[in-house]
Amino acid sequence: MKNILFLLIFVCGVFLVSAQTTAPKYEFRAVWVATVVNIDWPSKPGLSTKEQQNEIITILDTQQKLGMNAIILQIRPAADALYKSDLEPWSKYLSGTQGQPPKPFYDPLEFWIKECHKRGMELHAWLNPYRVAQKYTQPLAANHVAFAHPDWILKYGNKLYFDPGLPETRAFVTKVVKDIVVRYDVDAIHFDDYFYPYPLKDEFPDSTSFAKYNQAFKFESKAEWRRKNVDTLIKMLNDTIKAVKPWVKFGISPFGVWRNSSDDPRGSDTKAGTTNYDQLYADVIKWQENGWIDYLLPQLYWQIGHPTVDFKMLANWWANHSYNRAMYIGQALYKINSSSKIKEWATTNEIPKQVRLLRTIPKIQGSAFYSCKHFKRDLLGFQDSLMLNLYNTPAIIPPMSWIDNQPPQPVRKFKKRGKKVKWKVFETLNEMDKPNLFVIYLNVQGSVFDPNNSELIYKITDGKEFKFSKFNKKKKKYEVRISVLDRLHNESEISNPVVLKL
Questions:
Q1: What does the alpha-carbon distance between residue 111 and residue 57 come to, in Å, rounded to a whole number?
Q2: Sign of CA dihedral 360, 363, 365, 367
Q3: Angle at Cα 287 formed by Cα 86 and Cα 433, nearest 5°?
Q4: Integer Cα distance of 362 and 338 in angstroms
Q5: Beta strand pairing call for 477-485 and 437-444
């Protein structure tokens, strides 16, 4: 009896480990690339064009190797631009001086997009809506909007901000976003947690705009008025994005707590000192519920079991508030450190445990890591965990059926020659249905082909041909199948197999 019990425990243990390590077929795998104060890229201001581009290539090659399928690139850290803009000056984080373009000239955003798409990765353009300057004393370029409209600008602490209470600032931010979406092939527009600034000792100085544009809100309801201002901006942005390019997603990465349950029965069982709703005036759940955004990516930068903001509890809370939109989770890569005083961050286990946990929560479809520069240092083996275990098979970015749920046409004229396979596609003028990427499935001939088994995905590529390398000393026969992914990652019918000896 003991032997049977031991065998059952062993089999169950093997099954659980297997279930935890099998990656899902669909998963959002992203990393933030912060440009403000040169956090991630460029590594410092004043690099030459070639040096900047080489850093981009290195970042993307690294992230592709790790298994990422999306980059969240900060292109507007503070009313400036890491792209060619007639509305805002070139960011000082490129050259060291605001307003100066790269030399020799190139468009960084265009380069990032091209290199991401070449690798089958999405580019999410990350903007800060209201921040104008990190320090109010820093020199601004002569063409900065602050000189044309000084009445739009407020000083709070040592920073400058657009006044969110003004219709003119909302219109300007919307104009900036529309300009990006019109001119660049971005896959998404992304905002983080900075709406109204994190509170300081003094009150945010928006009394003038409240007096002029209070929309009948009384002074004691000023917090509701502030939330209404942000609500209005978010809906304007979504309407504008979708009117220009319906396939471009709109996502928000809020602070990890919406509200504490002590302030609202709908809130989470947390004791956060700051919340989106109460201090940042960002009712992100309302935006998700009303369909004004396509995804939320809350920043859960705490460990499983944290006494006041527990990662596991919060992940489940956010999943329960997904409202038929996408929900991803932000993870604190930067906290991994062998010398951390918090034991969970001083070991190799915390983030892999979090990834596995998220995969058990049905409404959560992936995560993003903050931030990419930390992949260059010792993460206690986490890079190996991704490549050899957690992300050891490619993943398709989850489709968004509310934007588009029509699968594209399958491949045609699928042929083999030697170790190479080639195929053709049906052309279409509809951007939503255009072939974007191709999934190559591979299984040993005679084995069961299960299209939902992520381990059978050999590669996701943007090309229309692929050459296999030799697999074994003694050749085996493999079945190769191809499917098409459109812009929103809807998958076509999978082709009939061709057989290769590899």
A1: 10
A2: negative
A3: 70
A4: 32
A5: antiparallel
Both tokens assigned to 83: 């792209």
pLDDT band per the 50, 70, 90 thresholds, residue 16: very low
pLDDT value, residue 122: 98
Contacts of 341 (CB under 8 A, 6+ apart): none
User: What span, in angstroms and rounded, lies between the C-alpha atoms of 167 and 164?
Assistant: 8
What is the average per-residue pLDDT within 206-224?
97
Both tokens of residue 50? 């070639």
What's the pTM? 0.95
Query: In terms of residues, how long is the chain?
Result: 502
3-state secondary structure of 219: helix
Order of all β-strands in the sheet with 412-417: 412-417, 420-424, 465-467
3-state secondary structure of 404: coil
The predicted pLDDT at position 21 comes to 56
Determine which helix (DSSP H) or strand (DSSP E) holds 355, and give its type and residue range. Answer: helix 350-359
C-beta of residue 158 within 8 angstroms of C-beta of residue 207: no
Radius of gyration for the alpha carbons in the chain, expressed in angstroms and rounded: 24
Tell me the domains of the chain and their CATH numbers: 24-390 (3.20.20.80), 412-501 (2.60.40.10)
pLDDT digits (tens, 9 = 90+) for 110-169: 999 999 999 999 999 999 999 999 999 999 999 999 999 999 999 999 999 999 999 999
Beta strand 477-485 with 498-501: parallel, antiparallel or unpaired? antiparallel
For residues 303 and 350, give the distance between their C-alpha atoms in angstroms, rounded to a whole number: 7
Alpha-carbon distances of 491 from 325, 463, 486, rounded to whole Å: 19, 16, 7
- 457-461 and 437-444 as β-strands: parallel, antiparallel, unpaired? antiparallel
- Round to whole Å and give the CA distance between 177 and 87: 10
Give yes or no for a contact between 449 and 497, defined as CB atoms under 8 angstroms apart: yes
